[in-house]
């Protein structure tokens, strides 16, 4: 009979722990900074991995613009950084998407430009946050 109160106590504690706010891990590298915050904007797009530099690219759906993804201002200007091959993404992106399986990620992305726009070149950006995410599992196998 002692098992019933113990089970109820464990169940109650588990429910209380679920109700606590879950803090998402901090980014390793800041994307939005006081210097670039005013230039950050939301765009609907598709992130894929490609061959070349940078490897991660965001197509702004409805346009012909491709943005190159880096972790943030501090890594974009570092010529010794391999950041272009493994940028820091928001926690909710890393939770549902693994680019190594070569499936596109669609969603709304808050991007912060890291350099001025130049015609004919990928504009370097970092992804500050994301919402309405969808991984296209119909391509390249299940």
Question: What can you tell me about this protein's structure?
Answer:
This protein is of the alpha+beta class. The protein starts with a helix and ends in a 7-residue tail after the last strand. 19% of the residues lie in helices and 28% in strands. A hairpin with a 6-residue loop joins strand 1 and strand 2. It has one domain. The chain is built from 3 helices and 5 strands; from the N terminus they run αβββααββ. The chain has a 5-stranded mixed beta barrel with strand order 1-2-3-5-4. The chain has helices at 3-19, 73-76, 91-96; strands spanning 41-49, 56-60, 66-69, 105-113, 123-135.
Going by helix content, strand content and strand pairing, the class is alpha+beta
Helical segment count: 3
Unreliable segments of 5+ consecutive residues: 6-25
Main sheet summary: 5 strands, mixed, barrel
How are the elements arranged and paired?
Blueprint: H1 3-19, E1 41-49, E2 56-60, E3 66-69, H2 73-76, H3 91-96, E4 105-113, E5 123-135
Parallel strand pairs: 3-5
Antiparallel strand pairs: 1-2, 1-4, 2-3, 4-5
Protein traits:
alpha+beta, 19% helix, globular, 5-stranded mixed β-barrel
In short:
The chain is an alpha+beta fold and 142 residues long. The protein has helices at residues 3-19, 73-76, 91-96; strands at 41-49, 56-60, 66-69, 105-113, 123-135. The N and C termini lie far apart (49 Å).
């Amino acid at each position: 009979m002692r098992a019933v109160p113990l089970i109820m106590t464990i169940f109650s504690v588990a429910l209380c722990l679920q109700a606590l706010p879950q803090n998402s891990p901090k980014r390793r590298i800041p994307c939005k900074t006081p210097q670039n915050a005013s230039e950050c904007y939301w765009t609907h797009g598709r992130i894929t991995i490609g061959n070349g530099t940078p490897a991660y690219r965001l197509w702004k759906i409805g346009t012909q613009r491709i943005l190159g993804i880096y972790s943030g201002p501090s890594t974009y200007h570092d010529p010794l950084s391999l950041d272009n091959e493994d940028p820091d993404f928001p926690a909710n992106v890393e939770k549902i998407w693994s680019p190594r399986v070569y499936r596109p990620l669609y969603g709304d992305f808050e991007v912060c430009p890291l350099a001025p726009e130049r015609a004919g070149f990928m504009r370097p950006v970092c992804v500050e946050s994301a919402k309405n995410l969808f991984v296209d599992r119909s391509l390249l196998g299940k």
